[in-house]
Design brief:
The protein has about 210 residues and is α/β, with parallel strands linked by helices. A five-stranded parallel beta sheet has the order 2-3-1-4-5, sandwiched between helices. α4 packs antiparallel against α6. It starts with a helix and ends in a 7-residue tail after the last helix. The structure holds 2'-deoxyguanosine-5'-monophosphate and sodium ion (2 copies). The site of one sodium ion has 3 residues, from loops.
Length: about 210
Amino acid sequence: IEGNKKECRGALIVLEGLDRSGKSSQCSRLVSYLEGQGIHAELWRFPDRTTNVGQMISAYLTNASQLDDHTIHLLFSANRWEKRSLMETKLKTGTTLIVDRYSYSGVAFSAAKGLDIQWCKAPEIGLLAPDLVAYLDISPEKASERGGYGNERYEKLEFQKKVAESYKALHDVSWKVVDACQPIEDVEKKLQEIVVDCVTECQKGKPIST
Ligand code: DGP
Ligand code: NA
Ligand code: NA
């Protein structure tokens, strides 16, 4: 059993939602929980602002630079592509990845600007497919009341309303929708249940797909 366990792959788990939906704190809580259960897990986030591409994205988000909507879309995608092989290695060697935003953010935020949704999806094709997408569901109005937005480019109620609409269009039956307006501990419990189920499925040999 020990030997088998080592060969089990990790799960690719993505949390999505509007800004201020609570993703980041739920992601770190999940990682601590999984580690406590003896499941090796790491917290990842996109955009990953530490890379060269990530720094360009960060400059754009903080309004330090201006970029064409298509250009920034491709940079966000490139930022996921540059992490793809490391992601695959981690999963294959048994690390579960809890990822704060992924391709769905890529499509939802750019589609909210009016870009064609098929065009937005194209550069995401071939990235690793998540084993689970958990959507933290909150209305744009409620999210905006939570301790206020920061000063970044997209943190505006009118824009977040459009993002919420694009998430609705992207959403499919495989997503687990979690009510993000519940008390934080209830959201946490719910996420723990669905994530552990998913990790178990992956350990049983569910293949990694694209
Ligand atoms: P965060 O670090 O999760 O707060 O993300 C920064 C902002 O960038 C947030 O408003 C969501 C947005 N965002 C995240 N991923 C993408 C993406 O792939 N494309 C676009 N256009 N926006 C994204
Ligand atoms: Na943000
Ligand atoms: Na966040």
